[in-house]
Amino acid sequence: MSASVVLSVQGLSKKFSRHLRTALWYGLLDIGSELWPRAKAAATGLRRHEFWSLQDVTFELRAGEALAILGTNGAGKSTLLKMLNGLMKPDAGRIQVRGRVGALIELGVGLDPTLSGRENIFVRAALLGFTRSQVLPLLPEIIAFTELGDAIEMPVQFYSSGMSARLAYAVAAHLNPDILLVDEVLAVGDFNFQRKCLNHMMGYLARGGSIILVSHAAHHVQAVCQRGLVLEKGRVAFQGGATEALDHYFAQQFGSGARSGPGRLTPTASRPAIIEGVTFTGPQGGPVEPDEEIRVQLTYNSLQALPGVAWSFLIYTNDGSICITGGYTTQALQLPAGRHTLHARILRCPLTAGDYLVRASIYDVNLIQPVAMLGWEDAPAQLSVQAPPSLEKNYQQIIRQLVTLEVEWTHLAAPQLT
Ligand SMILES: Nc1ncnc2c1ncn2[C@@H]1O[C@H](COP(=O)(O)OP(=O)(O)OP(=O)(O)O)[C@@H](O)[C@H]1O
After folding, report:
1. Closest by alpha carbon to 148, among 127, 174, 121?
2. Is this structure's pTM higher than 0.90?
3. What is the four-CA torsion angle of 39, 40, 41, 44, rounded to 10 degrees?
4. 5-10+55-254 domain in CATH 3.30.300.20?
5. Which residue ranges does the chain devote to CATH 2.70.50.60?
6. Residue bearing the CA closest to ligand 1, atom 28
7. Exposure winner among 57, 219, 278, 317, fewest CB in 10 A?
8. Architecture of the domain defined by 273-395
């Protein structure tokens, strides 16, 4: 392990059984095989009803670095974190840690519901290897960070999920871990708490700490992480920069085109007009690049003429949370029946490199109601902007810049020195 590497994970795998009975039986066999190494060697493959929750995962984490773990529900993120935290034993592979791991995984874990928040601080700290006398000097700071007030004396069973998250984060963050594991807890905190945690994480990273963050929230990942690892059915599907990892993760969910089932793109009596597709190309019909003209083409197919309609497209961030920009026709159109293509030009692509989601619609201008729509759940409504190599630096920024503004700078004249 090189000097700056604080965590090295090699070929990590974990298997589970789908059935409780076999899980219990295999559990007993595994205990036996620990004592009898020949049986252990035989148990490296999958047994009946077993599946890999995590398979052959390899990565490194350096001091001062934050790595996002992304993946759909059930991809293996929590299993990975539990093994990193020592709560679960891998079936294969190796984890090497330099320093102490502070973990904030699964809200309920490590909190005793019958004890107060204050007492639970000692319980959680004990799980992380701290004695009572080591925790005592840190107690005021931990309690202040939670902002729980008098509720710190209340049994934790009466805490809301946000209150539990405050307590868990405050403890994990204030015991000076070398690596902080943060599971999806930020999602349950209110806005102020999220901001407080994000600020804390930035300071902690600047002081040389390292973070592994499991999150589905793109803005959290972009604010904190430089790198990202995408898990897909327990395997590493992508590893690289945080922005590229988010692109991969969202493309995995929105961009496969699999949702456009047979017959979906055919007009019917109950849905006489459909949008078959929207494409975005550069001026030569090739890839779209920042600052260049974009050609937009919408192909519709209608069993009947469409009088008094307009068409529009909207471009969203790749998690679908922000509509960046859109275009609308300003006058009512008379569109003929049949399959036809509508054209528009975006005169200058304001978007930086990345993948974007698109929605398009043809709507009735009087009723302001869609006649036909195409969303990102329908293939192939996507826009990919590719930066030429000279612009790639933008793409790698930690906080992603979505659009480029045209700015005219007006400087104050410098005072004349006499
Ligand atoms: N103790 C267990 N016994 C059996 N299967 C398990 C166990 N823990 C996790 N799994 C399975 O392992 C797979 C990965 O689960 P895991 O909780 O790691 O996913 P995740 O990526 O954290 O999902 P989410 O985003 O929903 O939290 C799932 O199929 C899950 O059902």
Report:
1. 121
2. no
3. 120
4. no
5. 273-395
6. 74
7. 219
8. Distorted Sandwich (2.70)
